[in-house]
Write a sequence for this structure.
């Protein structure tokens, strides 16, 4: 009897660290992983990008409709969006891990069908760091997460160093959608701008992505306007917006779709986003001189 | 002046006064709450608040008018551009034009649309509104059965909205950020929009007033109307076209603002018993008041942030209908 117990103990001790991998997702749910997942479905572009940035792209077997980076994920089955997730197809792919946004309506259904779901909701820069850490942990290489974040952080600092003194601290109005919705100080975009040393036309009190009275923007007179290229092109013809000095004096950057997607996804391409923003600011700084 | 004309004059005066008072608030409600320092803020008032205020009045008037026409034409107090499929049709028209613009590589922004394009959008919305009502009428086989008509309208509305949603899914590029617009928004109404809205109002209001008598006759039933010498098919077609034009213009400029067309005629009927002549005019006025009130509230409640104006019209309109239901126990 004692020998059996000893053997059992030995077996437990010898088992790989894997057996103990437990992570708490953003719903506060404990998720246990018996082995590193090999068939992963990701239902959020930033989570897809995180998996790939952690060198586990080959383990993805399907993504949501909007995941389009890196190119290799374009060939994977597309499983719908937040509202119309294709439950049956996901189940038929037999994933051993589903990564989803906390707001995804599919989570309960997928769990009821016996799938392991980790819900993660990257909203701020801090969230992004945490999400990268959790995904790395789930993939079985927690250290890779910390290393990736370190690389991102260093690259963002390098981008910040390139921002010309002439534009540093200027108020940026960053429009995410034309209602108009803006990226405020407390959004991850606002936080990235802050790390680049920039101010924001939308203070923290208004929340991350407030729907603004268009008059507000004209009244605030931001020093710099940033938006998707198409939105920027239509701005001067909005009622009263021809009075925006930043537009009249071309202190504005419009971003084409591909670059725009980098900017509006809180994932591992944040450093690239910082580079894009810095490039815009360097251009504006050269003009200011 | 007899009693009924006096009551009529009182209601008209009250609504006009309300519109005027709200217009003052409309010029004052900015991103910093109410401010009457119009001299200091002149640029903002002239370029943003004034056209937005006038635009909300005109949009509301068109919707109120369309609602009154619909309710008279179909002898159904629940009829409105939304329940007859015409608003959904207008929305689909707008979505298709925007998506086509995107496909041709030229992205059409609703705010930057020049006058010509605005008329293009209005045309598409008008055609869509007309198609929506026509579908509803075909499905219901005429207006004889009110319940069937309403059900058909709801079905057509759902169907056309579903087509819009699908188009938006297929061409998300062209429509990015426009979903909000389709929920109803007065935020970007400029002088261009006001010109288009005014044009539509100038056409639809006087013309529909000319057919007020026909609507009165229709109240007595189709047989009586015919015996009074009305050419029913022609009259009906013209009124449907007028309703579609009013709805289409409003939707093309301000998106799908809910409830105004349904509630405006009810407010008028609750205040005064009238024939269709004054009913049409007063419904337009009531619609204008309702939408401007919602717009001012949308701008002010959480300034400098905004609430979607369509949500507020639904709240105001819905509350009013609930009160009406409780008081009268019927529609």
């Amino acid at each position: 009897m004692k020998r059996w117990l000893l053997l059992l103990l030995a077996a437990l001790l010898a088992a790989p660290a894997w057996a103990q991998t437990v992570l708490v997702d953003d719903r506060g749910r404990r998720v246990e992983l018996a082995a590193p997942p090999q068939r992963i479905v990701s239902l959020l572009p930033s989570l897809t990008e995180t998996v790939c940035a952690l060198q586990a792209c080959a383990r993805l077997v399907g993504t949501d409709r909007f995941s389009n980076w890196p190119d290799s994920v374009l060939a994977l089955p597309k499983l719908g969006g937040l509202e119309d997730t294709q439950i049956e197809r996901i189940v038929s792919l037999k994933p051993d891990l589903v990564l989803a946004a906390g707001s995804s309506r599919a989570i309960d259904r997928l769990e009821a069908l016996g799938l392991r779901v980790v819900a993660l909701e990257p909203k701020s820069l801090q969230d992004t760091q945490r999400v990268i850490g959790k995904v790395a942990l789930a993939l079985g290489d927690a250290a890779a997460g910390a290393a990736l974040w370190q690389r991102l952080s260093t690259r963002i600092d390098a981008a910040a160093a390139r921002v010309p003194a002439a534009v540093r601290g200027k108020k940026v109005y960053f429009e995410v959608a034309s209602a108009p919705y803006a990226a405020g100080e407390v959004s991850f975009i606002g936080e990235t701008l802050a790390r680049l040393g920039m101010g924001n036309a939308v203070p923290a009190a208004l929340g991350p992505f407030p729907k603004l009275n268009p008059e507000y923007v004209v009244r605030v007179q931001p020093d710099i306007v940033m938006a998707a290229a198409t939105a920027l092109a239509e701005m001067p013809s909005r009622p009263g917006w021809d009075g925006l000095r930043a537009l009249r004096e071309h202190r504005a950057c419009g971003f084409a779709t591909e670059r725009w997607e980098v900017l509006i996804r809180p994932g591992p391409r944040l450093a690239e986003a910082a580079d894009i923003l810095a490039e815009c600011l360097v251009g504006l700084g050269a003009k200011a001189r | 002046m007899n009693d009924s004309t006096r009551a009529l004059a009182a209601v008209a005066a009250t609504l006009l006064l309300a519109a005027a008072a709200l217009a003052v608030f409309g010029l004052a409600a900015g991103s910093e709450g109410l401010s009457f320092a119009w001299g200091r803020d002149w640029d903002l008032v002239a370029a943003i608040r004034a056209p937005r205020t006038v635009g909300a009045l005109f949009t509301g008037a068109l919707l109120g008018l369309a609602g009154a026409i619909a309710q008279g034409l179909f002898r159904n107090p629940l009829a409105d551009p939304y329940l007859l499929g015409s608003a959904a049709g207008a929305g689909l028209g707008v979505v298709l034009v925007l998506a086509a613009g995107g496909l041709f590589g030229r992205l059409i922004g609703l705010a930057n649309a020049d006058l010509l394009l605005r008329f293009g959008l209005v045309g598409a919305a008008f055609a869509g509104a007309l198609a929506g009502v026509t579908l509803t009428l075909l499905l219901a086989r005429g207006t004889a059965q009110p319940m069937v008509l309403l059900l058909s309208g709801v079905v057509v509305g759902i169907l056309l909205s579903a087509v819009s949603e699908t188009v938006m899914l297929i061409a998300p590029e062209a429509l990015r950020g426009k979903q909000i617009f389709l929920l109803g928004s007065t935020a970007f109404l400029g002088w261009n929009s006001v010109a288009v809205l005014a044009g539509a109002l100038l056409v639809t209001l006087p013309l529909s007033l000319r057919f007020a008598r026909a609507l009165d006759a229709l109240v007595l039933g189709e047989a009586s109307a015919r015996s009074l010498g009305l050419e029913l098919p022609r009259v009906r077609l013209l009124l449907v076209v007028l309703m579609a034009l009013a709805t289409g213009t409003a939707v093309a400029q301000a998106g799908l603002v809910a409830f105004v067309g349904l509630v405006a005629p009810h407010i008028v009927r609750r205040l005064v018993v009238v024939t269709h002549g004054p009913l049409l005019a007063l419904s337009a006025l009531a619609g204008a008041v309702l939408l401007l009130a919602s717009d001012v509230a949308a701008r002010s409640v959480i300034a400098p942030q905004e609430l979607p104006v369509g949500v507020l019209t639904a709240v105001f309109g819905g509350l009013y209908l609930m009160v009406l239901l409780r008081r009268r126990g019927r529609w």
In short: Residues 42-73 of chain B form the longest helix (32 residues). The domain at 44-328 of chain B is CATH 1.10.3470.10 (ABC transporter involved in vitamin B12 uptake, BtuC).
